[in-house]
Amino acid sequence: MSEPIRVLVTGAAGQIAYSLLYSIGNGSVFGKDQPIILVLLDITPMMGVLDGVLMELQDCALPLLKDVIATDKEDVAFKDLDVAILVGSMPRRDGMERKDLLKANVKIFKCQGAALEKYAKKSVKVIVVGNPANTNCLTAAKSAPSIPKENFSCLTRLDHNRAKAQIALKLGVTSDDVKNVIIWGNHSSTQYPDVSHAKVKLQGKEVGVYDALKDDSWLKGEFITTVQQRGAAVIKARKLSSAMSAAKAICDHVRDIWFGTPEGEFVSMGIISDGNSYGVPDDLLYSFPVTIKVKYFGDYFPCSFTKLDIFLDSRSFKFKY
Ligand code: NAX
């Protein structure tokens, strides 16, 4: 067994974390032989609830969990981190304007970025989930200047998975038969789900999604709006926002960062643009198609990424870890 890695989940008393923590603890994200010290951060008024989550994690008796630390203190939470999954953020409340929400979250993510800068390992991989995810991620990255900006990404994998699932449902296949959809832009209703490079496996053969479906008007119309508005549809039905599917998407995203993307596949992630790809301006946090290759040091440490390529670009555009 390798040395334990230290993984932080913020917003740990919330509903996404409740679905996420078990998958992290049971080895579904970092592998079945990777011990973990799981750190749970939430705000002080949630410490009672977080105690309950801690007890449940203990009661799961998960052999990979070497320790679970529940805290409301950033110096404890961000210390020596290998991975930080930033789920907690200020939700939009009734009567709250967008600018007030942004202001509240800028404050949170500036503080958490500064804590990453001060306490975490410089190799820490930071995944931002809390909304507005793109803005929060950029804020955290800017507040942690000594951590490579390529180590920061935000979650658009839920939108990516939603797009895959819609195509699979339409074709009567399972979603693992669909690959290489792209979510461009923001994790918001302005995102652009794009299947022009997507492939589907039909009777053992890979076919372009447009050719397989032969329904361009659906792909250019209802498909796009369904994916863009899926989050709102879930809230309307469930009276709560997506949690189980968000947790699954976080697992997919982090697993790909840790182990690399499968050969011949790319996934969607919000990352900081360097201005050289697809005409997206420099320094904008934007969802792109990415491939990730991971370099292993020795037998046990899947710790450093050699590169994160932006797919579909013939120029030698590379994010270097
Ligand atoms: P919950 O309200 O259930 O949980 C959020 C938790 O974060 C609460 O326990 C709260 O006390 C905690 N929190 C607030 N401020 C904090 C801080 N400064 N430090 C640590 N913890 C803090 O929300 P949940 O449903 O779990 O959603 C969490 C976030 O994910 C929301 O911002 C939500 O909008 C966002 N989402 C993002 C998605 C994405 O694809 N990027 C999809 C799912 C989800 O909507």
UniProtKB/TrEMBL annotation:
This protein's GO CC annotations: centrosome; cytosol
Stretches assigned to the Lactate/malate dehydrogenase C-terminal domain: 156-294
Annotated catalytic residues: 187
Domain Lactate/malate dehydrogenase N-terminal intervals: 6-152
GO annotation, biological process: malate metabolic process; malate-aspartate shuttle; NADP+ metabolic process; tricarboxylic acid cycle
One of the Pfam families matching this protein, by short name: Ldh_1_N
Alphabetically ordered keywords of this record: NAD, Oxidoreductase, Tricarboxylic acid cycle
Catalytic reactions on record: (S)-2-hydroxyglutarate + NAD(+) = 2-oxoglutarate + NADH + H(+); (S)-malate + NAD(+) = oxaloacetate + NADH + H(+); (2R)-2-hydroxy-3-(4-hydroxyphenyl)propanoate + NAD(+) = 3-(4-hydroxyphenyl)pyruvate + NADH + H(+)
Catalytic EC class: oxidoreductase
SUPFAM superfamilies with a match to the protein in the record: LDH C-terminal domain-like, NAD(P)-binding Rossmann-fold domains
Family: Belongs to the LDH/MDH superfamily. MDH type 2 family.
Record protein name field: Malate dehydrogenase
Organismal lineage: Eukaryota, Metazoa, Chordata, Craniata, Vertebrata
